[in-house]
Amino acid sequence: MEIQDKGVGISPNYFAKILQPFEQESTGKARLYDGAGLGLSITKNLVYMLGGQITIKSEKNWGTLVKLQIPI
């Protein structure tokens, strides 16, 4: 399964943190976007529990592609 958006994207130097709970690239009171930073973390855990993999490709100001591979 692939999910793609045309949003703000994720900086390459932030990829190490993006799958951790409560992590967002924009933080503090001046952050630009809402959310708790749980979506990708929950997705990663569910995919791993099913024996799958998650791959993320992103580019700032272009968007993000999330690929989920789950064995059937």
Q: Helix and strand succession?
A: EHEE
SS element count, helices:
1
Question: Structural class per helix/strand content?
Answer: alpha+beta
Q: Tell how many strands the DSSP assignment holds.
A: 3
End-to-end Cα distance:
12 Å
Short description:
This protein has 72 residues and is an alpha+beta fold.
Question: Features of this protein?
Answer:
25% strand; single chain; alpha+beta; 1 helix; 3-stranded antiparallel sheet; 72 residues
Word description of this protein:
This protein has about 70 residues and is an alpha+beta fold. It has one helix and three strands; from the N terminus they run βαββ. It has a three-stranded antiparallel sheet, covered by helices on one side. Strand 2 and strand 3 form a beta hairpin. It starts with a strand and ends with a strand. The model has no long low-confidence stretch (mean pLDDT about 85).
